[in-house]
Design brief:
The protein is an alpha/beta fold. It has a single domain (about 40-225), classed as Spore Coat Polysaccharide Biosynthesis Protein SpsA, Chain A (Alpha-Beta Complex). The protein has 5 helices and 11 strands; from the N terminus they run βββββαββαβαββαβα. The strands form 3 sheets. It has a 7-stranded mixed beta sheet, with helices on both faces.
Amino acid sequence: MGVSVSEDGVTCEAQPASTSATAKPTPRLTASPPWMFDNARMQTAAVILAAGAASRFGSPKQLARIGGRTLLQIVADVAREAGLQPVIAVVPPGMAVPPTVVPVINDAPSEGLSRSLRLGLAAVPAEVGAAVILLGDQPTLAAATIRLVLDAAAGDRPVVAGSAAGLVGPPVLLRREAFALAHEAAGDEGLRSILAGHPELVTAVEVEEHAPDIDTREDLASLGER
């Protein structure tokens, strides 16, 4: 059975920047309890965004299979291999998820990725100190890449993101005090431009390349050629 979560689980309060009239305001982040950082690696959830319409694919691509596993199952397995727990997946109504995954239902997927992001973060249990944002159509993302991001999470910045060719992207780790950044996202926009606008909040971790999205059946077929 799916879980329907209100977007009100996270809030955002911005304070004006003092440097210039045109500068973007820096979000006022909530303080995190000190126990979250007592250990070398805090408990971190996975939030897999997998509620897209897949219009270019022609059918729910989350359920397309590679070697007997769905794309969603592959991404969930990678998350667990990297040590993320719980593994939460935001999916459209009626979509089955693997038994090891906590489903969160996006009952309005047409509102875009931003709604899925807010719903997924709102579902992270209160005792969990951070979440790694993953995409359900990136089955080639390696667990080792997620671990690189996790290893950098103890720094003084509340966001850690993979960076390749000067662009940040998944995996993106948000410590709990940065969950409010999701309220800056709109429509089908994810976190990339928001993080680019707040570089002071982000630790960029160099990765060899960003995992490609599977948007079409040709993309899926090409994985057999890698």
